[in-house]
Amino acid sequence: MIEESIIVALVCIIFLLHFRSAFVAIFTLPVGILIAMAVMYWQGLIANIMSLGGIAIAIGAMIDGAIVMIENAHKHLERDRGKKPHWDIIIDSAKEVGPPLFYSLTIIAVSFLPVFALTGQSGRMFKPLAFTKTYSMAAAAILSVTIVPVLMGYLVRGRILPEVKNPINRFLIWVYRPVLRWSLKLRWVVLAVAVAILVFTVVPYKHLGSEFIPPLNEGDLLYMPSLRPGISITEARAVIQQTNRLIMTVPEVKHVLAKAGRARTPLDPAPLEMIESTIILKPEEEWREGMTIEKLTAELNNLVRLPGVTNAWTFPIKTRIDMLSTGIKTPVGIKLTGPDLKALQGLGEQVEPIIRGLPGTRSVYAERVAGGYYMDFVVKRNEAARYGLTVDDVNEVIMSAIGGNNITTTIEGLERYPVNVRYARDLRQNPESLKRILIATPLGAQIPIGQVADIFPRVGPPSVKTEGARPQAWIYVDINPDQDVGSYVQRAQQAVARQVKLPAEYTLQWSGQYQYMEEARKRLNVVVPVTIVIIFLLLYLNFRNVIEVLIIMLALPFAVVGGIWYMYLAGYNMSVAAMVGFIALAGVAAETGVVMIIYLDHAFRDKQQENPRMGVRDLYDAIMEGAVERVRPKMMTVSAIIAGLLPIMWSTETGSEVMKRIAAPMVGGMISSTVLTLIIIPILYQIWRNWEIRRAARRDKS
Fold first, then answer.
1. Which pTM value belongs to this model?
2. Coil, strand, or helix at residue 222?
3. Which of 376, 522, 584, 597 is 20 to 30 Å from the Cα of 700, by its Cα?
4. How many Å apart are CA 589 and CA 700, to the nearest integer?
5. Beta bridge pairs of residue 406
6. What are phi and psi of 259, to 5 degrees?
7. 598-615: string of b/e by CB count within 10 Å (b at 16+)?
8. What are the residues facing 280 on neighbouring strands?
C-alpha cells in the first residue's frame, strides 16, 4: 500500500505541477485509510490478505474525487482570479462538481453489493475485501465534499501554472483533439467499429477457463496420497518412509513429516490408507534458478511413483478448509450417493478409468468403500455356556488380548504415555494363532478361544461416509496445474454421462472447488443485475435524465472488453476473484463516465447561455470544449487508478495470486474504458443533443 500511495502521489504532482494542490489530493489517502481501519477495528475485522487487499485496490479510486475538485478549482482560478474573492471561487468550483462526484464515489461503494451477497466459502473469503473497499470509498466520498474544499481554500493559492502552459496537458490536447474531431465527423463508422470490437470480445471470453480462486502459494506443500484399503500399519509405515526419502532428494525441500491414519480425536476421521505428508520448503532465494511452485510440484509428482499409491499435491491450509467444507481434498471431487455400498464401489470403479483417460487428469482415486478387511469373532453361545462363560467374558478376552488395554500411564517430565498390554505379535498374527488364545473358565480351566468362537476373515466397509443420512462413495480427482477446473469438469461430466448409467436411487454430485465456483456463480447471476439497477437509480437521482444515465451505463460493456482481453493475454482463468475485479471495474467505469458527462453538460449550458438558439456548430464547439479542454482531470483519475493497481500486478508476495486476478480486470478495463469513453460518450452525447436541437427547431417553426 505504501508503493501504491507513492505512485498515486507522483501522478498528482506530475499532472498538476503544483505541490500544495497535490498535497490536498494526497491528504485524502491516509485519512481515508485510517477511517476505514477504524471501522474495521470497530467491526472486529482482522488485518489479513483479503481485508488489506480491499484497501489496496481502492487507493487509486479514493483520490478521484479530490483530483476532480482540485482540477476544477484550478480552472476557475485561471478564469476568475481577480474577478471574485478567492473563497467564492473555491466554493463555486466545489458546488459545480461536488454533488455528481459524491454520487459517483457512492456508486463505486454500492457496486460491491454482489460481493456481500456471496455465501459459503466465497463469502467468507471476499466479504472482508468488500467491507474494507466500501469503507475506503465511503470515507473518500465524505472527505471529497467536506475536508477537500476547505483545504483547497487554504492551500490552492499562489502561482498556479495555467493549463495551456502545462506540458502534459498540452500533449494530451494535441493528441486528443484531432482524434475526437475525426471521430465526431465519422461517428457512425466509429460506433460500428466499437460494436464490432464488443462482439469480437466473445472470442477471448470463450477461451477463458474457470476456477474458484487461483491456488494461493502458502510456502509449503501437502502430499496426500491414497492407498488401497486393508493396508497394514507396517506396510503404511514402509510407504511413508519410502515417499519421504524420495521427497527429501529434491533440493528445495527442507523437511517432510508424514502421518498415516487418524489422530486420537473425533475431528480427524482419516482411515489408515490416507497419508498426509507436510513438506516444509526452503526459502525461495535458495531454490534452483527458474524453479516455481508449479514446476516443483510436477517434479515431485514424477519422482514419487509407487504401485498402489495415488498421488495428490496441494497446500496445507487450503486443504484443511476444503475438507472441512466439502470433505474433498483434491480440486475436483465426485460424490456417489445410494443405498448399497457395494453398488457405490462398483460405480466408482466404472467412473475411475473414464476420468483417468481425460486430458488434464493428474491422478484419480475412487474409494473402495466395501474393500476393508476384518477378522470376525462369532461367539458360539451354547459352547460358551457349557464352560460357564458369557458373551461378555469372551469379548473381554478378545479386547484385552488382541486389541490391548491401557493399564497405567507413565510420566516422563511433562509428557505422559499410556502403557498398553496385549499378546505379542507372534501370538496374534494369523487366524490359527488367534484360535489358540486362552480364556479362563469360572472353574479355573484354560481353554482355547477357538472352542467357544468361530474366527474368520471378512470383507467390509473401512468407513462409511454419509450425507443426508444416505451412504456415499467419494472419488478424488487431482488435475494438472495448467488445467482450469471449470472446463475440466464440463468435459468430465459429458464423458461420465455418456458412459455410465446410474441405477435408480443413485446420484452423482460434483464437489470440491467446482462446488464453490458454481454456488458463487449462481448467486452473482441474481445479485449483479439488481446492483446494476441500483447504480442506474443512483445515476438518475443525480442527473435526472434517463438518456444521460444510459450513455454512462454504455461505458460498462466497453470497460469489460479491456478486462477480458487483459485476462486472456495474461493467461488468467475466470474465477470468483476475477468476478470481484469486474464488479469493482463497473463502479470505476461508471465514475469515469460521470466525469465526462459533467464537463460536457457544463460546456453545453455555457454555450446555451451565450446563444439560446444554438445550432449544430455550437453543439460541436461545446463538445470539443467539454471533452478536449477538460481532458486533464479525466486522464488524472484514470492514471491514478491504473497507477494504484500496478504495484499489485508486479508483486510476488503471498496472496498476490488472488489480488492479481482482482486487479487484472480493473487495469485492462480502465484502459479500454478510457479510450472508448473519451470517444464514444462524446459521440453519443452529440447524437442525443443534436436530436434535441433539431426537435426544438421543428417545434419553433410550427
1. 0.75
2. strand
3. 597
4. 38
5. 420
6. -135, 135
7. bbbbbbbeebbeeeeebe
8. 220, 255
